[in-house]
Design a protein that fits this description.
single chain; mainly alpha
Length: 153
């Protein structure tokens, strides 16, 4: 058979040819990878410059929104208190109006009654006197006797 050295040399030659073909095919991919790395580096630089102020602005905006929310909550609570006070005032006004209505009605009824009483014609008073009897008044004893007789009957 043929010498093993020949086969060893041939396999080394084939391996070298394969590696050369792989390197030639990998050159454009490596160039694209280098471009992507430069682009990523630019992006990271831009992010490192722009991101902290943006995050700071977002943080500040969040705090302002929280402050506004607190202010709105306080305003709503204050408005609720004002509404309760107005409602209580309206209830008080209703009660006073009812009391005034009752008082006014009482005054009108009193004035009306007074007017009727004032304008009414007074009847002529006649005092009828009983005739004086000719009998002398009864004594105490006679009265007691009459009482006793009347109670037995």
């Amino acid at each position: 058979m043929i010498d093993p050295l020949f086969w060893l040399g041939l396999s080394i030659l084939l391996v070298a040819a394969s590696l050369t073909a792989v390197l030639i095919a990998a050159i454009p991919a490596l160039q694209e990878l280098a471009r992507a790395a430069r682009s990523a580096e630019k992006l990271f630089d831009t992010l490192s410059r722009e991101l902290p102020p943006t995050l700071n602005s977002i943080r500040t905006t969040g705090m302002e929104i929280t402050d506004l929310t607190d202010d709105v909550s306080e305003s709503v609570k204050s408005a609720g208190k004002v509404v309760k006070q107005v409602d209580q005032s309206l209830d008080g006004a209703k009660k006073q109006a009812q009391n005034l209505q009752v008082g006014t009605r009482s005054i009108f009824v009193g004035v009306k009654t007074a007017w009727k009483s004032f304008t009414r014609q007074k009847p002529a008073r006649r005092v009828e006197r009983l005739p004086i009897t000719e009998k002398p008044p009864l004594t105490l004893r006679e009265r007691e006797i009459k009482k006793g007789v009347g109670s037995r009957e």
